[in-house]
Amino acid sequence: MSDGGKRWRIKPRILRACTVGAVLALALVGLALHTGWGTPSAMGVGYVAAVCPLGALESLLGAGAFAPRLLLGLAAALIVALLVGRAFCSWVCPVPPLSRLLSSKKAKGREAAACREAGQLALERHENGDEPARAKIDSRHLVLCGALGSAAVFGFPVFCLICPVGLTFATIVALARLVGFNEPSWSLLVFPAIVALELTVLRTWCGRFCPIGALLSLVARFNRTFKPRVDPARCLRTTSGERCAACSTACPEHIDPNANRGIAAANECTRCKRCAEACPQGAISFPLIAREEEPDSSTP
Question: Which residues form the 4Fe-4S ferredoxin-type domain (predicted)?
């Protein structure tokens, strides 16, 4: 392992867990102190507001009217996605840790096997020079169209009623009202039950059904910053010709950071940094903007 790999650093998975925990704690503090800044589904201070981009689009379509605050919040969320891609999915969204918590040992084994298979496929494509044939849209985009269409037809954000992200924070709100105001509610039973049902029955929620991830991935196609870069001077594939698939095997999105020959395209990257953590040579980094002489491993 290179010297870079031996440095003492806080591991990305710990940072991710701390970030999600901090977001949840911030929501609880806001509810306890009545600050009014809301939750990540709809937060703000005064006239400065940020709303879930999907919820904002649904509300705009449902209302059929011009709403400046919603548009500003939507623009802010999309700008963030343009800068960091789908980072929300691994650093803020509570669904991935909840899904892991609810996963059985057998389900986790199937997920690990799928990652190994995807890693080997990417390696074989790299060695053979095969370019992956990927569909431009998938089932998530169909759910996204359904969410937006239903909002336009029924006049309100229908998907928000079953969104596991929103329901998670709605459960926190219901719990805070129970503790703070002694107001029991069926929400404390119904919301967690819906979330658990979605994440256990629809085991691949994030990869196949989440319209928020679909929307962020569309914006991330234009992203040029904080993308994974592989240093060819360190990578085992290029320095010694080893059949290393550590990075593509570690990626939960089935991306190949080395040559973008994974099952999923590079714009699906959530910046979880599992690839960098798994690389035995410390060859993967996430620079603000890659140097011109550095090869862009995310370009097919």
Answer: 260-289
User: What global pTM score does this model have?
Assistant: 0.83
Cβ atoms of 60 and 202 within 8 Å: the answer is no
CB 53 within 8 A of CB 74: yes
Residues 6+ apart with CB under 8 A from 54: 144, 147, 159, 163, 211, 212, 215
pLDDT in tens, 157-170: 899 889 998 888 88
Q: What is the pLDDT of residue 48?
A: 45
Q: Which residues of the chain have pLDDT under 50?
A: 1-7, 46-49, 292-300
Residues of the chain by 3-state class (helix, strand, coil), percent to 5 = 60, 5, 35
Nearest Cα neighbor of 237 from 220, 261, 217, 213 is 261
- Write the DSSP assignment of 185-236 as a string of letters: -THHHHHHHHHHHHHHHSTTIIIII-HHHHHHHHHHTT--SS--EE-TTT-H
Q: What is the pLDDT of residue 4?
A: 42
Q: Where do the domains of the chain lie?
A: 12-34+43-285
- Tell me which residue of 129, 294, 169 sits closest to 227, measured CA to CA: 294
- DSSP symbols for 231-252: -TTT-HHHHT-----HHHHH-T
